Amino acid sequence: MAAKVYHILPQSKDFNYESGLQGKFEKFLKEFDFSSYIPENEIVPLKMHLGGRGAFRTIRPQFVRLVIESVKKIPAKPFVTDSVRAPGYEYLEIARDAGYTHLTLDAPVIMADGIFGRDSIKVYAGKTIGEIAIASSIHDAQSMIVLTHVKGHIQATLGGAIKNVSMGGVSASPRGSDWHEGRGKMHFLMGDLMQWNQEKCILCFNCMKICPTQCITFPDNKYTVDKEKCWRCGRCARVCSTEALTVPVSHEMFMKALAEGANAVLSTFQPHRIVYISFLLEMQPECDCMPFADTPVAQDQGILISDDIVAIDTAPHLIY
Ligand code: SF4
Ligand code: SF4
């Protein structure tokens, strides 16, 4: 049987709260049977991307709060989480500035792999990436709600639920290991450092500015990376306008790695324990980890809800 994907349209028929997207989402959540996915009194991660500083098109806190209220009615104990993308302490400050706090959401906001981004458990993902380190607060949970702001992505093209679960469910620098068993492995399957072409480099230093770990320097005008500190996130190559930097992975290899990463995260849950909610709102071309929010590339399409990660990521082609 084909998986169900519910679609809440963004348009409002009249001037009432109930006709607007927020009102319709609230009504949907009241009628949706969360308790068939989440047992009573369970501690439940709401996995979402909390954004970068300046990336203000993430999921609005009002929508997150509505989901939290619904989970509490089960009753269960929700918390909002993501793995460390900017350094953890800084990432929590970014989350606060975006309106994601315990006070505003009425649920804790925590780093899924700890404030230092190292708390994780290794799981076999597949033949492309082997073992990968799942953030412990996701690994140890029995059920989960995945909130995804749909947008573009550096390498995945579509930043949907699969990308959210895969890259966001994995630590960047796992304890007792390094990027070889972390998120960076997906970007660096065919080499362990960025490839730098000196002839193409115009010394704009945009790569240095975007680097989340400040591990790039230019001694004698040569791109140099502190190998120990580099997360292998790929952002420096993304912002290089001359293609002087390239990530050592083919698109096909990256997509296989992404799928295996998602499968590894999902393998830590029993079937029928995850609900996906994707927000097709303010769909900008870049990932929310970039330090800006660009103009959306499509009009708002509303909200999708499903218990099938592939169905929800492939549903948008039915909408446009
Ligand atoms: S962003 Fe590219 S062109 Fe600019 S300094 Fe870095 S490598 Fe050179
Ligand atoms: S891949 Fe580039 S941007 Fe990312 S941590 Fe390494 S040097 Fe910095």
Number of strands: 15
Order of helices and strands: EHEHEHHEEEHEEEHHEHEEHEHEEHH
* Ligand names: iron/sulfur cluster
Distance between the termini: 24 Å
According to CATH, the fold-level topology of the largest domain is Rossmann fold
- Strand order within the widest sheet? 1-15-14-7-2-3-4
Second rung of CATH, namely the architecture of the largest domain: 3-Layer(aba) Sandwich
Task: Provide a count of the helices.
Answer: 12
Shape: globular
Q: Tell me the fraction of residues in β-strands, as a range.
A: 15-25%
In this structure, how is the largest beta sheet organized?
A: 7 strands, mixed
Give the total of domains. 2
Overall structural class, as computed from helix and strand content, comes to: alpha/beta
The poorly predicted ranges are: none
Portion of residues in helices?
Answer: 25-40%
| CATH class term of the largest domain | Alpha Beta
Radius of gyration: 19 Å
Overall mean pLDDT stands at 94
